[in-house]
Structure formats: structure tokens, C-alpha cells
Design brief:
mainly alpha; elongated
Length: 70
């Protein structure tokens, strides 16, 4: 990947798990256009968890510790 990871491992796991839960709940409970929009937003959070790079975190200058602590 061209981007430096800026999300720690524990947060990546949390983003993936919570994103899947929110997407499933939105599609099941909201349905229709609103459910699809919320699920698409949750898919973006899942993607940031899978890739380990968050563009918004990069904009504010968030970086991982260079010593490898996560």
C-alpha cells in the first residue's frame, strides 16, 4: 500500500467488528435508502480497519508509535 498505517491493531479490529455490526443493523432495521446509506458509511469504516489507514486521522497528523507499541 502507498499509505503509512496510522491506525493501531486494536483499533483496526474494533473498526471492522463495529462496522460490520452497524452495516447489518442498518440494513435489517432501517432498510430502504437510509439503511443503504448507513451501511455504505459503515463499509468505509470497515475498509479503514482492513487497510490500517484512516484519511481523517492522517489529516490531523495522527501517527503510530515508531517503537512498535500498539
Amino acid at each position: 500500500m502507498f499509505y503509512v498505517k496510522n491506525v493501531p491493531t486494536w483499533e483496526r479490529v474494533l473498526r471492522v467488528v463495529m462496522g460490520v455490526i452497524v452495516a447489518a443493523a442498518a440494513l435489517a432495521l432501517l432498510g430502504g435508502m437510509w439503511g443503504t446509506l448507513v451501511a455504505a458509511s459503515a463499509a468505509g469504516i470497515v475498509a479503514s480497519g482492513l487497510f490500517g489507514f484512516c484519511p481523517m486521522c492522517a489529516m490531523v497528523g495522527r501517527r503510530l508509535d515508531k517503537q512498535g507499541k500498539q
